[in-house]
Structure formats: C-alpha cells, structure tokens
Amino acid sequence: MFFRLFLWLLCLCVLSGLAQEGFITNVEANGKITFTGSVFHITQPGASLAEDLPVDMVPVGQWVLSGSWMMEIDPDLLAITKWEHNMVMLRAREGGSPLPNDVGGNPTRASHTVQLVLRDGRVRSLDFGTGLGRITGTMETMKNGQRQFSGESVEILLVGGGGFKGMTNLEIRFLSELGIVTSATQGEDVGNEARNAREYFGDIILGTVKRISFAE
Fold first, then answer.
1. In the chain, what percentage of residues exceed pLDDT 90?
2. Opening angle at CA 153, ends 123 and 163, nearest 5
3. Residue 162: what pLDDT?
C-alpha cells in the first residue's frame, strides 16, 4: 500500500515538473529557433484613455513606442538564449490637447530610447501548428542606456497567425502589482514618476512576428 502511494506521488511530481517546464510542438528543429519582428504601440501609461488623470500626472498624454525585437530559443532546454528589444518612445498629441512645454516653453515629445532586457526566459508552450506561444521571465527596462525598472515578472504571448504563416501578434504583459516599486529610484521619493514598468507602459506592449528562422 505504501509502495503504491509512493509511486503515485512520484508520478504526480514528474507530471507537475513537466507541466512547469513547458513544451514545443508541431516543429522539428535541430538547433536554435529565432523569431524577429517589430513593435508599434500607442499607450496611455498607468491609465485608460477614458480615465480622468490629474494634471500633474507623469507621464501625461499618449506615447508611441516603435522599434524591433528578436528572440532566440533553444528547443532542447526550452530556454530563451538571446533576447533583444529596442524601441523609441515619444509623446504624441491626444486629440486637441497641446503637447507639454519644456523649460524653454517649446512643445516637447520627450523622445527617448527603451531597451527591454529579458532574464531567465522559459518557454511554457509553443505550438507551431496553431501559432500560439507563452514565455515567462523577469524584465529589466533601460531608458537611454540607464536602468529604469528591474525585476518585474512578465508573460510574453504569441497569438494567432495560423501556424506563424500569417500575421502573428506579440504581447508583452507586465504582471507586477500596480503599487509595487521597481524603479531605479526605489527607496526614494518617486513623486509623480511611474513606480514600475506596468504603470509606465500600461499593462501590455504590442508587436508582431515578421520572420522565423531555424539553425541548420
């Protein structure tokens, strides 16, 4: 009786471990799998467009993110071995509202570069038959080459595309609680600055998959 119970618990642990490790289906790959694509996303950090924001909320107005991304997967280890995500972020006009002014009184878009750095990326599921995928990890955010936010859990989704043969969407979802502070000024008075990447970018960054290549 005890032996049967031990075997049952052992099988349960194995199955649980397999579920956590993830899987890749409907593809034969002898080496690394590389995804490349682009990002073009308009966001209202920290709030919906319909929400009434305080006039001193920072950042204000809509922001446009555009750039490129690349992800390299080791199908044997189910790990992300390379990740590059480079964008430009700038403020856009929202309806008839004017752009904020800089110290000289000139309208400014506050353009800056953004790099998203993925740590400990793991493939949870990737199905080349349906064009669906899910990757998890932690994300660091760099602004103009300087650390801005760090240690935020993310979920990266690949959605649709009919087996990656059509338009496939990339979704980067920040899972941090809105109140948590992950900024480089942690421990200091952050004032009206966004406390974490989820507030800064909004819940999600959108992009597309343009090309998939397989190592020989």
1. 43
2. 35
3. 75
Q: Please give the single-letter amino acid code of residue 16.
A: S
Q: What mean pLDDT do residues 192-211 have? A: 85
Q: How far is CA 59 from CA 4, 110, 135, 213, in A?
A: 60, 10, 29, 38
118 domain residue, yes or no: yes
pLDDT tens, residue by residue, 82-109: 999 999 998 776 555 666 666 666 667 7
For tokens 């970018």, the residue is: 201
Amino acid identity, residue 147? R
Number of domains in the chain: 1
**How far is the C-alpha of 110 from the C-alpha of 146, rounded, in Å?**
16
Instruction: Give the phi and the psi of residue 114 in degrees, each rounded to 5.
Output: -135, 130
What is the spatial distance between Cα 122 and Cα 22, in angstroms, rounded to a whole number?
8
Neighbours of 152 (CB within 10 A): 19
**Would 172 be classed as within a structural domain?**
yes
Which amino acid is present at 145?
A: G
pLDDT(190) > 50: no
Please state whether 128 falls in left (phi above 0), alpha (psi between -120 and 50) or beta: alpha
Q: Which domain holds residue 74?
A: 22-49+56-93+106-184+191-214
CA distance 141 to 150: 6
- Give domain status of residue 1, yes or no: no
Burial letters 86-113, b for 16+ CB under 10 A, else e: ebebebeeeeeeebeeeeeeeeebeeee
